[in-house]
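We read letters as residues; the fold follows as C-alpha cells. A sample entry reads:
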Amino acid sequence: MKQVYLYDGTPFLLYKNDDDEYIYPSDDWTEIPPPNGIYSPFYFDGERWIGTDKNEWLSQRGKLENYQPSTIEMMLAHSQLQVTKTANQLVKSQKEQAETLKELTKKEKRIQQLEEQQAQTMLEIAKLKGE
C-alpha cells in the first residue's frame, strides 16, 4: 500500500493489482504531501503546494461565522431538506414493499405446497377406492 495526494490535497491510498503494480488515480496527483501549517483552500500547482496561511484562514473563517444567508438561499436549503426527507421516505417505503413482497412469495410457495399435497392425497384416495 502507498499514499499519494490529489492536487486538491485529498489523500489517496494506492493498492497493487494482480501484476503487483500500483493502481494510480485518474486525477492529477503527487507524492509530495501538503506541508504542515497550510490551510484551506490549497492546491498543488505541479511543483509545490499553494495555500492559505493561518492569519488569512482565520480572517476568512470570521467572515463565514457572521454570514447571513439570503432568502433565496434559505428557500433553496428548505427545498433540499424536503427533497431529502421525501427520498428517505421513498427508500423506507421501497424496503417495506420489498419485505411485503418477500412474505407474499413465501406464502404463495406454502399454498402451492399445500395444493400439491392435497392433490397427492386425492390421487392416493382415488387409487385406494379403485382397488
About this structure: The helical segments are 54-65, 71-130. The longest strand covers residues 39-44. The chain has two helices and five strands.
